[in-house]
Specification:
The two termini are about 35 Å apart. It is globular, with a radius of gyration of 23 Å. The longest helix has 23 residues. The chain contains 16 helices and 12 strands. The protein is α+β, with helices and mostly antiparallel strands. Helix 15 packs antiparallel against helix 16. Strands 2, 6, 7, 8, 9 and 10 form a 6-stranded antiparallel sheet that branches. A two-stranded antiparallel ribbon has the order 1-3.
């Protein structure tokens, strides 16, 4: 497999194999993208380009712009939209599918085969009542958060670029169209398996999909006595790790439907997401989620529910419910172990001791009671001094109940002393576990407002800053400040 660009950065010389296409017509519909009039560049990710083995600089040729806007197809591209089903807000939704996404093919990259997908490239047979388009607003949010999550070290689909057009698209109001080029080793979702278990007329298709997934994405499972059970357990472990990552960085997905769950344990489908400002375990980032099903604290439980849905989709192949439940059982230890490992790192604890869970919970309870800023609190905690008389006002003043914080700080100081922690060394470790910069909603909103006026510099600046979220970057410290008061009025929903 080979996909390279020529010296100008054009895709003209690339080859575009698509292994998913080998599954056959039951799995997808081939169709060309619908282009946009007079497309222009909005943003380009140097880090994603490097991942693909492409030049970091944005291409200067018209051919690449046209190809990544859906206006032309490079030689060898065979775009397709895949079919899947799923549970949405806990209710079986039946057939869904790539309603506004098209797979272009794969590239051979230093990181292995990577699929490229255009999001917002027009109607597909799976668009249902939609128009198959994406708007500039949502495209900027997905682009920035995909790259921000990668900078944080959280498994995610990536975003190579955004192209835009003055083509009008109606949402709550008339907006302009955009296309995001998304990148991932695979875009297969839990919903793909649910579809072929629940709706496909040919039961052999489910086996075909499982074999394809194992052989291309989880080859180690092929050696197991029950490869499909091994696949379910491997996906369970990856999902548990992903949930620990989300909770540790304060990320809320907002729409954890089974069709938005990656078989590779990647964060996928950025819509009404949000990072915590004031710490609130019950925070609901999606204003369409009226029941709070996908609130921050519920995400790990929803992931487990979704894994059960995946297991149900695989049952025709597994047959033995005890074997399936055994594979899912791994979540009950994998998630809490992974989360505690991340929280120990956030507190700078170099060893594992009894009572660590209570220490973590004690801090989170204080933060929840006082609505302390999640990201800022953990970042400032790195500067906590353990010596007598140390000035810890920077972290202490974030709490309304200072005495309650002091009581926790006494326990924390004692725990650090037990392992002989050195303040300087610990601060360095904690700053590698606690980001200074996250994509807060108000930062994305400012970038969107500028972009609507034709100024894309803020999108590029945020992409640059969020690629190195753990670095001090003192010239950009304002981007790590508390959110302004108007940020509380921002609402994001499934249309975002």
């Amino acid at each position: 497999m080979n996909a390279v660009v020529d010296a100008t950065g054009s895709f003209a010389s690339a080859q575009w194999p698509n292994r998913f296409q080998s599954l056959g017509p039951a799995f997808f519909t081939p169709l060309p993208p619908q282009g946009m009039p007079d497309p222009h560049w909005v943003a380009w990710s140097p880090e994603c380009a490097r991942l693909l083995g492409l030049p970091a600089e944005r291409p200067g040729d018209a051919d690449t712009l046209a190809a990544l806007s859906g206006n032309t197809l490079a030689t060898g591209m065979n775009p397709l939209a895949s079919v899947y089903s799923g549970h949405q807000f806990g209710v079986w939704a039946g057939q869904l599918g790539d309603g506004r996404a098209l797979w272009l093919g794969e590239m051979a990259t230093p990181a292995g085969p990577m699929e490229l997908q255009l999001k917002g490239a027009g109607l597909t047979p799976y668009s249902r009542m939609g128009d198959g388009r994406a708007v500039l607003r949502s495209s900027i949010r997905e682009f920035l958060c995909s790259e921000a999550m990668a900078g944080l070290g959280v498994p995610t689909t990536r975003a190579l670029c955004i192209t835009g057009s003055r083509l009008p698209v109606r949402r709550e109001e008339v907006e302009t169209a955009a296309v995001v080029t998304r990148v991932a080793p695979s875009f297969i979702r839990f919903g793909h398996f649910e579809h072929f278990a629940h709706t496909a007329e040919d039961p052999a298709a489910l086996q075909q999909l499982a074999d394809f997934t194992i052989d291309t994405l989880y080859p180690a499972c092929r050696e197991a006595a029950q490869p499909v059970v091994a696949l379910l357990e491997a996906v369970t472990e990856r999902t548990a790790s992903l949930m620990a990552d989300w909770q540790a960085v304060g990320f809320c997905h907002g729409v954890m439907n089974t069709d938005n769950m990656s078989i590779l344990g990647l964060t996928i489908d950025y819509g009404p997401f949000g990072f915590l400002d004031a710490f609130d375990p019950g925070h609901i980032c999606n204003h369409s989620d009226h029941q709070g099903r996908y609130a921050y604290a519920r995400q790990p439980h929803v992931a487990f529910w979704n894994l059960h849905a995946l297991a149900q989709g695989l049952m025709p192949l597994i047959g033995d419910s005890d074997a399936a439940l055994g594979a899912l059982e791994r979540y009950k230890t994998a998630f809490p172990d992974a989360l505690m490992a991340r929280m120990r790192a956030k507190l700078g604890l170099a060893t594992r001791q009894e009572g660590d869970h209570q220490l973590v919970e004690g801090l989170l309870e204080r933060m929840a009671a006082d609505r302390t800023d999640y990201t800022i609190a953990f970042r400032r905690l790195a500067g906590f001094g353990t010596t007598a008389g140390a000035d810890n006002a920077a972290i202490r003043d974030l709490f309304i109940d200072r005495e309650a914080f002091d009581a926790w700080a006494t326990r924390y100081r004692g725990r650090l002393a037990e392992e002989g922690s050195d303040d300087t060394e610990r601060a360095l470790r904690m700053n590698r576990a606690n980001p200074k910069y996250v994509l807060r909603n108000h930062l994305a909103e400012v970038a969107i407002r500028d972009a609507r006026q034709g100024n894309f510099s803020e999108v590029e600046r945020l992409c640059q800053i969020l690629a190195r979220p753990y670095d001090e970057q003192p010239e950009w410290s304002a981007y790590a400040d508390f959110p302004p008061a108007w940020a509380n009025q921002i609402e994001v929903s499934c249309s975002s």
